[in-house]
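Async update (no meeting this week)

Hi team, since we skipped the sync, here's where things stand on the single-chain job. The sequence we agreed to prioritize is pasted below, unchanged from the tracker. I ran it this morning and attached the output directly underneath so nobody has to dig for it. Comments welcome in thread, and please keep replies under the output.
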Amino acid sequence: MTSTVLVVDDEPDIREVVHIALTDAGYVVRECGDGLEALNLLTTSAEPLIVLLDLMLPRMDGNEIIKTLFSDPDQPCMHCIIATTANYRLSHSITTQSYAHQVAILHKPFEITELLALVEAADHALASHPRPSEVPVPLTTLRYPDNAQVVRDAESSVSSE
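Output:
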């Protein structure tokens, strides 16, 4: 199974490079340039998506998107989230939610091979779970590249120094 990847970044050059790399790897790619557009697409999508989500976005930042997606226990998030950040600290509440929902953190700049490894692992995670859109897809089976981090301690913040 090849999943659809939603690339959410306000930098057109980053979206373009990532789009080309993911398309060349056989993924279907959709793009959004701001957080509000992304949240609308994510909350109305009938299919689980792999989401490459920049944390610094106009109109609604990535932290707020994560918080919103995971805020309703009666509507579990069905998407696999890979958050990207460059020298940006995660708030305590998002750190806690990232830990609870296995949101992967990939620091910019990243190598395309690192990105592809995370997307491939997320694709396998989506494929291994039932398809009803109400079922959350935890990323516990992911193998993370060296520069990717999963928040493990709810008391700590993740940053790129």
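Quick observations from my side:
The chain is about 35% helix and 15% strand.
The chain has one domain: 4-150.
Reply here if anything looks off.
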